[in-house]
Amino acid sequence: MPSLKRLILSFAICTFGLLIASCKKSDNSGSGEQLRIAVIPKGTNHLFWKTIHAGAIKAAKEEDVTIMWKGPLIESDREGQIKVVQNFITQQVDAIALAPLDDEAMIRSVKEAHDEGIKVVIWDSGLAPAGDEFFDSFVATDNIAAGEKCGKQLAELMDGKGNVILLRHMVGSASTKKREEGFLKGLKEHGPDIVLISSDKYAGATVEESQEVANNLLNQFADSVDGIFTPNESTTEGMMAAMKGAGIAGKVKFVGFDVNDALLAGIEENVIHALALQDPFNMGYLAVKHSVAHLKGEKVKRIVDTGSVILTSDNLGESRIQELVAPDLDKWLKQ
Question: Which carries the bigger pLDDT value, residue 31 or residue 117?
Fold first, then answer.
């Protein structure tokens, strides 16, 4: 029989091992339990976010994992998004797929998730460089390249001359900041004689805020502007409404970003002359796919460009464009 001393030592080692194991995040990848992946958008109202949700659901079904979709209602609620992330960290989800509302404000929460052993995939919008070491993959549109396409498109529509307004989206939004930078680069390259008459105004998070800022801009520049660029869905819709109110819709060349039913109607009515389209369904799909791959220890690209195309009235009928402007969301969201 083992000695009493040996039994006590064996019990102590076993107890210590159990204590250490209980302090670590559990690994469900081989336990038969479904992996839990939190998918956190910047907002939930726009068609863009709903399309991403649909793509995430498709990937979750293919991988047999559970996704937990939650985000702030509006894209200015930084504190709200931080609370969502903190809540999922507390729940010890297996992975977090996050579209950061603010490239600096979210770093602390992402680091905390990383330190807790939670896999982190950043999508749509990046973090400031200080956060680079705390995530596993970045899945997004190459926003600088997409912005450059918009600058080139507007320069060509204006025949390389005239005055342009850039209405920015929101301070801290990395994705739209890069689109704006890319736009200015493309505009300068393809329309060096074009004059930028306003580029320092921010629209805010909603269509209503965007329209109010756009109204003020057009009160000042309606008689002198020849071209306008807006970098996301809400700024584009708000500007379109303001242009209609100012009586310049269709007369001033207008390039926007993203799509919904109202913006699609703007293309059909020739009020909007071009829209940059992302692939949000694929973005949501790949964000979940990469989360699962990292949990399984598979090797995947750290940075993935989900692509962009320019929509005009000329290519609206093309099959690829139709997939982007009219995704079958009911198939995934109404199950």
Answer: 117
